[in-house]
Amino acid sequence: MSSLWAACVAEFFGTMVLLLIGSGVVAMTVLFGGGHPGEVVNGGYTNITLAWGLAVTMGVYVSGKISGGHLNPAVTLALAIFRQFPWPRVAPYMVSQILGAFTGAGLVFLTYRPAFLKFDPALERTAGVFATFPLFRDAPAVGFLDQVLGTALLLFLVLAITDERNQAPLANLTPMLVGLIVVAIGMSFGALHGYAINPARDLGPRLMTVVAGFQNNGLTDGSGVFWVPVVAPLLGGVLGAAAYDLGLRRYLPAD
After folding, report:
1. pTM (2 d.p.)
2. What average pLDDT does the segment 63-88 reach?
3. Domains by residue range for the chain, with CATH
4. Rounded to whole angstroms, how far apart are CA atoms 93 and 99?
């Protein structure tokens, strides 16, 4: 097992890559789509889901050999509970993931800052390029089940394809399959709360929007929407891992 420092560096860079590509495609779609402010065009939602899947794939390729390529606190927590991942590494992994997500989102904002200021001079409408928000703003908890189910499906499928007792692929194919899982979940459960399924992917960029001066950021604007994409994925990841282990893995041959 790699040193804790090396693993945290890998998680930082892997999650940074995840957000560079993921937030980058949302910025491209929103800022250069040619529609009204905030309207998702220029390839639309299909572009976004495909790019987020590729972002996960590349992030796992970057970090997988050193840290295991978690890139997601929900994954780290579930593996600690169900796969004997060392508990002393849980908090450092999560902090590294959040910092990587913050940095990746910040680099996207710096790159496209002129376009943001042209498109949304007061930064009142575009925090959603980086963080997720409920479809129904008057009911911020409406996407809670959406996030629980999406993340549960993520962990259920990730454990299934990486289980050596199951039909595990060759190691170099695993990142591609994990990325495809993310694409499928986004196309199926992405509307009600913006397709986070990852607390770091949401909280890190949301903190960046606060620092950068975005209004209506879900954290300091009084709306209180930030907690759903943090709490729900952590719960969903544990439930998905439990469902796999208790529902399927116990029937697989031990050897």
Report:
1. 0.93
2. 97
3. 4-251 (1.20.1080.10)
4. 10
